[in-house]
């Protein structure tokens, strides 16, 4: 199966409300879609890089550039996702750009053979429990209203974004208002240092499932030190860029839980390797989110259905982020989302909606 050409399509989708983390505020999702065309089938991949290099070093414009300049010209002759991974390996970094391209090729291949992403990856269930990530708010009452709304919708787990100055008080307030049974965790997006250990240890009182990425992305050793100073289990996100990095983190005792984001690790094949590694070591994993459209959400649901994903992920319903998604929306039922079962991703962009949010499109013939 040869690739005829690839379309790079930029979309701008307004978020239902601004999403604030320790590193910035998003009001519109500026996403890059990779659309692979072959004679037999077409495939889609979503690049999860943000507009600015704040979550990681990647950003949308840079991802588009490395795709057109280096990654797409290096594609192998046939549309084989494993061969794509090998062909892109010599290029350092850019995991989100690589992931989008590999996913689009894999999607085309699976659509051609009639196999779903979930079946290909090894999904063990047909629906997954949904958690929701709640951004930093201006006030605790505003946060409590937001959490109450999500719990009314049926979310099974709440994650609060935290940063210095917005940590103990919001966590205490949510715990007191919604009780000890609420599955609650926090995400610092690397906003603290090891010298904050005594402060972070005060979170131990609130029975959190985990604290995600408290320290810098390149601080594995310090995360291992922190793990001995606080009771809350440490989960790593930004630090885990590959299966090798996950192996190092586990060996060091830097984390006891891993947030797997396919974009951050270079694609779904590497994401599955991390899942397998963690499962073999008894390390729980869950699927993170990057404000994905329905394209990325569909693939994440397939991944989150693997047997080692034992904690609810950030795989929320579409309306958590978008009034109108570019695919038919993922609608939560009883706190769960169904894993798509159709060929490939199992969802297609709606042409009219996609065109309406497209800001640029570029065709690269191969
Ligand atoms: Mg995170």
From TrEMBL:
Encoding gene per record: menC
Top-level taxon in the UniProt lineage: Bacteria
Cofactor: a divalent metal cation
Enzyme class label: lyase
Metal-binding as UniProt keyword: yes
MF terms in GO: metal ion binding; O-succinylbenzoate synthase activity; racemase and epimerase activity
Protein name per the record: o-succinylbenzoate synthase
Gene3D superfamilies in the cross-refs: Enolase-like C-terminal domain, Enolase-like, N-terminal domain
Organism this protein belongs to: Microbispora oryzae
